[in-house]
Design brief:
Layout (H helix, E strand, L loop, with lengths): L2 H12 L9 H4 L7 E6 L14 H7 L7 E3 L5 E3 L2 E6 L5 E6 L13 H15 L1 H6 L3 E8 L2 E6 L20 H4 L19 E7 L3 E6 L13 E6 L3 H10 L4 E2 L6 H8 L4 E4 L9 E6 L9 H10 L2 H7 L5 E3 L22 H11 L6 E4 L5 H17 L3 E3 L4 H9 L5 E6 L5 H4 L24 H12 L3 H18 L2 E7 L3 E4 L2 E2 L8 H4 L4 E2 L1
Parallel strand pairs: 1-10, 15-16, 15-17
Antiparallel strand pairs: 2-3, 4-5, 5-7, 6-7, 8-9, 9-10, 11-19, 12-19, 13-17, 13-18, 14-18, 20-21
Helix pairs in contact: 9-11, 15-16
């Protein structure tokens, strides 16, 4: 952040902003108190956010823990535990000023020592995504109790984007230092600095958070308690919202064909806000190691064969839009100045013939996340059959889907990933040669390798100048659109259902994951 940005941020604070830019008059619109009943799906494996980072854990624990920064829907950084920050002109020295008077839920003070421990010790060991993002960091130092300095070995363009609560949660040093992190008893009763404190977890039933009455933002939180109810199937979750048992159903927790119906109930509404930072992006893995997927023209034929518009309308009920390539339009440096693949069955057939496809049957792994994904797989199977590609659906549960992709045991497979606001944080991992490794269903699972693409992604990450980064990433997108390592499908919009008595529900680019502190109940 340049000095002028720092001055603008200070002026905004003086104008009456509270938690990460939420105006006071908005917070005052609802009365204080009451209970929010929400759905969590599936039940999280744990709530220690430094150790477990899956979606349900982030949604709940993101309101227990905090990061140094938050991000708005344009992925602009906002203050949180850090009130301000500066960057040297080389882009290699970031200095954060911490908010005074912040305490952990057990009453101990939060200081720069906790930041150094969290980022440089705990999370380097437990958080694989952050560990990769910290590869550029030479040192992290506590200059004084309220000042932290991150020194980089070289410029890392997206560095200011790695400080949200799911990417870099602050961990209490006094509880974890010198312990075996994964076995620490405190993992069962998480301690953070956030607006809510952990109260109770009845396995298979609910998780309860209660208001942190010593929170560092005045008059926050605005409700007394939040219950996250564990309800096993989508139909029952829809019924719970319809009956009034729950007030809040996060994106993906009910089937898409139910969303519009439920949103029309009296006192109900729906929003797709709060996913901008994650930018969910779906595609079809194409196993580049195997014939016929190793042929460029076959992969291009698949792209031309898919009816993304119909899939978005029928399976996703309009809560998705066709992807134009590897970059979600919500992340930095997305461009539409790239090759297009409108549905054209005749072109697909011609390319299949040129690729030498002989009609062999290919195995397609649907994503086992409910009816919407099952419908998508059936539409895709029909699309490919119309072009002459024979496909059999191989049904699995979540564990089986993970195992097959971890072992590269597939021909075609559905997936979706988060892109985290910047191509260096959430795109490069899916296309660079260094990320070809068994054991993860979310890295370079397709086995694509192009030294030029590797070089460009590396250059884009290390470049500080936004205009130069834009030019680099345009080259990347053009190459990938030509070579089609995967078949891009949709930008997903996960709709959140809620009662209209809930106000101020989404106040950041990660939505429910860090916004419940400012939610109101009318």
């Amino acid at each position: 952040m340049k000095r002028r940005n720092l001055i603008q941020m200070g002026a905004a604070s003086a104008a009456g902003l509270t938690l990460a830019g939420v105006p006071l008059h908005l917070l005052a619109q609802g009365k204080k108190g009451g209970v929010i009943n929400a759905v969590v799906q599936p039940e999280p494996p744990g709530l220690m956010l430094g150790i477990t980072q899956n979606g349900p854990t982030q949604m709940i624990a993101g309101n227990i823990y905090e990061g140094l920064l938050r991000y708005d829907e344009k992925i602009n950084p906002l203050p949180s535990l850090a009130t301000s920050w500066t960057v040297n002109k080389e882009g290699t020295l970031y200095t954060f000023k911490l908010k005074p008077g912040v305490t952990w839920h057990d009453g101990k003070p939060f200081t720069s020592a906790d930041v150094v421990f969290s980022a440089d010790v705990f999370l380097r060991k437990t958080h694989a995504r952050l560990r990769a993002n910290l590869a550029a960091v030479e040192s992290i130092k506590a200059i004084d109790p309220l000042t932290v300095e991150f020194k980089l070995k070289y410029p890392f363009g997206p560095f200011i984007g790695i400080f949200e609560v799911g990417s870099m949660p602050m961990i209490p040093k006094h509880i974890y230092e010198g312990t075996e992190f994964a076995a620490n008893p405190a993992n069962a009763t998480p301690i953070g600095t956030g607006p809510f404190k952990f109260k109770e977890w009845v396995k298979g039933s609910y998780i309860q958070l209660v208001a942190n009455d010593k929170y560092h933002v005045k008059d926050v939180p605005l409700v007394e308690s939040v219950y996250f109810h564990v309800i096993p199937d989508a139909a029952s979750r829809a019924a719970a919202f319809e009956s009034g048992k729950v007030d809040l159903v996060p994106g993906g927790a009910v089937e898409y064909f139910d969303v519009l119906r439920l949103s029309k109930l009296p006192g109900a509404a729906v929003t797709t806000k709060g996913w901008e930072f994650f930018a969910p992006h779906s595609w079809l893995w194409l196993n580049n190691r195997k014939a016929p997927m190793d042929k460029l023209k076959f992969r291009q034929a698949v792209m031309y064969a898919i009816d993304r518009e119909a899939m978005a309308k029928i399976a996703w009920q309009g809560f998705a839009k066709p992807a134009t390539g590897p970059f979600n339009s919500n992340i930095k440096f997305h461009s539409t100045d790239v090759a297009k693949y409108p549905r054209n069955v005749a072109t697909a057939k011609k390319l299949l013939e040129e690729a030498g496809y002989k009609g062999e049957t290919l195995r397609l792994l649907p994503l086992p996340y409910g009816e919407t994904w099952a419908r998508s797989a059936e539409i895709l199977r029909q699309n490919l059959a119309q072009a002459g590609i024979k496909v059999e659906l191989v049904a699995t549960d979540v564990a089986g889907w993970n195992q097959k992709l971890n072992e590269w045991d597939y021909d075609l497979a559905f997936t979706y990933v988060y892109q985290y606001g910047d191509p260096a944080l959430g795109v490069a991992r899916n296309y660079t040669t260094g990320n070809i490794a068994k054991g993860s269903p979310f890295n370079n699972v397709e086995g694509y390798s192009n030294p030029k693409v590797d070089e460009l992604f590396d250059a884009g990450a290390k470049e500080a100048d936004p205009e130069k980064r834009k030019a680099i990433y345009l080259q990347v997108q053009k190459i990938l659109l030509d070579e089609v390592p995967v078949a891009w499908l949709h930008e997903l919009n996960f709709p959140t259902l809620y009662r209209t008595k809930l106000g101020n529900l989404i106040t950041s680019g990660i939505g429910l994951n860090d916004s419940l502190g400012t939610a109101t109940l009318a």
